[in-house]
Amino acid sequence: MKDPAQYSDRTFGNQRIIPRLPVPELEETCGKFLEWVKPLLTAEDLERTSEETAFFCSEEGPGPLLQAALVEFASRKDVGNWLEPFWDRMYLEGRSPLPLYSNIFYMMSLGPLGRDETQFNRAAGLVEAMIRFRELIESQSLKPDLQGGRPICMIQYKKVFSSCRIPQKDRDILRTPISRENPTLPDQKHIVVARNGRFFILDVIDHDGSPYSCSAIERALAEIASVEGPSEYPLGVLTAVSRDTWAEARAVLRALSPVNAESLDLIENSLFMLCLESGQPEDMEDLSMTMLLGDGRSRWFDKSMQLIVCPGGEAAINMEHTGTDGSVMVRLAGFLTGFESDPREKVPKAFKGKCSWREIQFHLNDDLREFVSRADGECQRMSADTSARVLLFDRFGRDSIKALSVAPDAFIQMALQLAHFDLRGFPVNTYEAVMTRQFLHGRTEAVRSVSEESVEFTRLMRGPEVPPEQKATAARKAMEEHVRRTREARDGEGVDRHLFGLCNIYRDLGTDLGIVDTPGFFETPGWLTLRRNLLSTSTSGAKGLFLAGFGTVEDEGFGVRYLAFPGSIHFNVTSRTALRGEMERFVDLLESALVEMRELLENRES
Asked: In sequence order, what are the beta bridge partners of 576?
């Protein structure tokens, strides 16, 4: 391993030494694929999948041709990461509403407002800190993220500020400061404030590049909040509905008036969005839904970051997922909450002058008013059709799990498997994202939590007259298998992304390669099963965070985001409202599973 002293402290100073994402061997991936889908398929479906997989990998099959083309593509000098263009396309071609199918919220651990603190004071402090974080990125003063003592790819930090997803028919565009085509404008000095369905431009950096002071921003926010009355036609709801609907409406909006085009540019080029909530959420579930979707009227879900601040001081970042992943938001949250300090010896002084602000205007015609009205109704239906449950599990946390000599994440994943088995009596395809930023332009890989070991574990846990020793042994084997899969995924030896790459190579080059018909492999029960994440899960570092969450992507499934703290574990679980009862029962069973598993392993240790 290289001496850490030889690595650069500059934010992007190590990019040239970050290794490229490897292309796994075809036979190894296909072998793991069959191993992964086996516990999820009937004997008949497994046989069909195995036969098609064997042909796919054979010399007569299309697999070797696709593999060779992928390897060649990955070796090109103009391709930093072979997965990146396919990954971007997957997101940008998605037509589903962003707030429930893509975006993620990260609620920060800020505590209640102080006696003399207000919503505007807290929001201003967070805005000021975000501007300082941007300054660290721009000046390359933000130290590189490390994994195992080695620097990892930092390219996502260039897409955090002044970035926006632009709706287009069939395929959106991601505009960032580093986009090759139509990048967002550099050196932006404003944010956009949303309140009561109205949008305001607020300068947070003065003409010479100095950030405005917290007190100046606070005064401006209080003035903005004093503007009375909600918007009759809140355009933010358009960003919450299907992408083709929003693309059509945006084209009409932009063509109608130069004022509209200028207003859209102001929003899309802004550093980020600040959403000042006017109503206080009633409980944790309401708070979760506020950070995920709210009523959609004071949001712009296309923006890379929306900072949402409630009257009670609760605050979260709602992240548009196309260009960035959670590890970047965790680093930002840690900075905003004081877990990481400004490393610069000389921090630029804040400008104490008055922040200028004005309301953003739009000209609407009857067609656009109808677009907004329909979108508003759809947004409220989406909200009503989505349920959330928050579990703040405080019996123990990651420290107690580590004391059992098991990996905390594997422990939690097996608790999820046990809870689901108790709920429905069978396993379902489970997705967990694992970061791969140790590779250039790396994003994530998928870990599939269901294994033959996990199925055996859940079976024995509920089997009659099974000795505790046997249950504990099965639990540890299941967790060890999960750790092994996680390690492989992190090292670029996963299954999902490789097969995804081969599928995209077929899409782009299949005809040129002489592969006319869709390979049967991509129509097998095994492949189709892995495409549906009925238990979609994710976690991240917890420093600076209190809760994180996302919407479920399947009507019959659950979305589970969790944070493991030293002494607690916080879960945010979502489902369709039609499954609310099942989801509530699942969370109760999860709580019981966590306690039961700890007691089982503790007793076996003693």
From this structure: 386
- Using CA atoms, how far apart are residues 428 and 95, in angstroms rounded to an integer? 25
pLDDT at residue 55 above 60? yes
Instruction: Decide: 96 and 456 in contact? Cβ < 8 Å.
Output: no
Helix, strand, coil: what percent of the chain each, to 5? Answer: 45, 15, 40
Pick the closest to residue 26 from 68, 72, 81, 84 (CA basis): 68
Total residue count of the chain as it appears in this document: 606
Do 160 and 305 form a contact (C-beta atoms < 8 A)? yes
- The answer to whether residue 21 is domain-embedded is no
Distance of alpha carbon 32 from alpha carbon 49, whole angstroms: 13
* Token pair listed for 599: 């007691």
Q: 166-205 pLDDT, tens per residue?
A: 999 999 999 999 998 889 988 899 999 999 999 999 999 9
Question: Which of 196, 163, 202 has the alpha carbon at shortest distance from 182?
Answer: 163
Burial of 208 (0-12, 13-18, 19+ CB in 10 A): exposed
Residues whose CB is less than 8 angstroms from the CB of residue 302 and which lie 6 or more positions away in sequence, other chains included = 98, 164, 165, 166, 167, 239, 268, 320
CATH number (domain holding residue 267): 3.30.559.70
pLDDT at 606: 54
Report, as an integer, the average pLDDT of 221-249: 97
Number of domains in the chain: 2
162 close to 34: Cβ distance less than 8 angstroms: no
Give the helix/strand (H/E) hosting 300. Answer: none
Tens digits of residue pLDDT in 348-370: 777 778 999 999 999 999 999 99
- 237, 376 Cβ separation under 8 angstroms: yes
What would the two tokens of residue 537 be?
Answer: 């899960």
Q: Is residue 328 part of a domain?
A: yes
pLDDT digit string (tens) for 314-344? Answer: 999 999 999 999 999 999 999 999 988 888 7
CB 231 within 8 A of CB 196: yes
Question: Do residues 298 and 437 share a domain?
Answer: no
